[in-house]
Specification:
Distance between the termini: 9 Å
Oligomer: single chain
Number of strands: 9
Shape: globular
CATH topology: Maf protein
Number of helices: 6
CATH class: Alpha Beta
Number of domains: 1
């Protein structure tokens, strides 16, 4: 469906992001970036997500100037509070109780860097997610499954955590971790990705 005009590198270990790119038959390598992922004092969630995406891509760009580096970072936020990956089961339950029966935002920052062409573009996509009102027992059972422990906000909409979600407004793939509609649009606009002729 597409022709790539340079090599692609995904600066992420996320199996979900890799699956999205594989589903489009894109050719890419994966090189997770190692950076400090601590929010700055008073940093807004969207600014944090964009900064993380940029820093992940920048960490690889200098050594791979011929490649398009794709960096991404997804945050779950409510009232300007960032909910990262839970460190314990108890923390996961607390996060889910906080999000229960309320709407929160999922924001993914994405950075595209291709040094040879002097391309450096950062964007973000926001999706509203509304949780249903489930009892504590169900939340604890979900946490006991282990599914939430490697996911921002302590849930995965694409796995068992989807049962917690009453509705979403915006991009589903953004909630999973990569806003594919906007990403493809940006890659095509930058001529890093070209639709194959008929």
């Amino acid at each position: 469906m597409f022709e790539q005009t340079c090599p692609f590198i995904l600066a992420s270990a996320s199996p979900r992001r890799k699956a999205f790119l594989r589903d489009l038959a894109l050719s890419f390598t994966t090189r997770p970036a190692v950076i400090d992922e601590t929010p700055h004092q008073g940093e807004a969630p969207e600014s944090f997500a964009r900064r993380m995406a940029r820093e992940k891509a920048q960490a690889l760009a200098a050594n791979h100037p011929e490649s398009c580096i794709i960096g991404a970072d997804t945050v779950v936020t409510l009232e300007q509070r960032i909910f990262g990956k839970p460190e314990t089961a108890a923390e996961a339950v607390t996060i889910l109780k906080t999000l229960r029966n309320r709407s929160h935002e999922v924001i993914t920052g994405v950075a595209l860097i291709q040094r040879q062409r002097r391309i450096e573009h950062v964007f973000s996509v926001r999706t509203q997610v509304c949780f249903a009102d489930f009892p504590d027992q169900l939340l604890r059972a979900y946490v006991a499954s282990g599914d939430p422990m490697d996911k921002a906000g302590a849930y995965g909409i694409q796995t068992m955590g989807g049962l917690l979600v009453e509705s979403i407004h915006g991009s589903y793939s953004n909630v999973v971790g990569l806003p594919m509609c906007q990403l493809i649009r940006e890659l095509v606009d930058a001529e890093l990705l070209l639709p194959k002729p008929e």
